[in-house]
Amino acid sequence: MKTAAALACALALALPLAASAAGPAGKAMTTAPMKSNGSGVQVQYRVDGTPEAGRPVAVVLGFDGIAAAGATVRIATEGGLALAGIETTRSLPAGQATTWTVEVLPAATGIGYLNVFTTQGGATSATSIPVSVGKPSATMPASGALKQSTDGEKILPMQVK
Fold first, then answer.
1. Which of these ranges, 18-32, 46-60, 102-116, has the smallest mean pLDDT?
2. Is there a domain that residue 153 lies in?
3. pTM of the prediction?
4. Mean pLDDT, rounded, of the chain
5. Contact 78/32 with Cβ under 8 angstroms?
6. Domain count across the chain
7. DSSP alpha helices (H): ranges in the chain?
8. Which of 10, 33, 37, 58 could bridge to 48 as Cys pair (CB 3.0-4.6 Å)?
């Protein structure tokens, strides 16, 4: 009986950790790179669905490696991306893998960023998560046609966005 209770307790503790590594429904998450002098909080993320301009899209954030004193996470956006919710800061409990689903609203076609700042033990780390809307911009075709200025200088004309 004690063995069954201990096994049930161990499974209850292990399942949230496994779910946060793979994400809900087993979908893979991207692990953000960590600097050796950063906060020490491991950040994983996944953009759920296909981002479209003017429609909210969910970004699932996963956090692990939280020390005994706990940690905090703060989010912000840039590049035409806005937060759909009002919560921008959250405390991360000590020793527990945690997930946070954030909705962002892309304003237009292009790439916006959800910036995630983790703080633990006085050190802060930043992770920028790209949220891409539409097709990536095509590379400029090679023109190869040099023009000459009135001074005789060779000029390569380039298209400006």
1. 18-32
2. no
3. 0.70
4. 82
5. no
6. 1
7. 2-22
8. 58
Alpha-carbon gap, residue 24 to 13, rounded angstroms: 16
Mean pLDDT of 39-65: 96
* The two three-digit tokens of residue 13, written as one number: 């503790």
- The three-class DSSP label of residue 65 is coil
State the residue range of the domain holding 62: 45-134
**Which candidate, 36, 33, 51, 55, places its Cα nearest to that of 127?**
33
Residue at 119 is within a domain: yes
Residue 65 in domain: yes
Q: Does the pLDDT of residue 154 top 50, yes or no?
A: yes
Within a 13 Å sphere around the CA of 110, how many CA atoms are in the beta-carbon half? 10
CATH number of residue 128's parent domain: 2.60.40.10
Contact indicator for 100, 73 with CB cutoff of 8 Å: yes
Locate tokens 């046609």: which residue? 145
**Would you say residue 31 lies in a domain?**
no
Consecutive H or E run containing 31:
strand 30-31
Q: What angle do CA 117, 114, 38 make, to 5 degrees?
A: 25
Residue 107 sits at φ, ψ, to 5 deg, of -85, -35
pLDDT at 124 over 60: yes
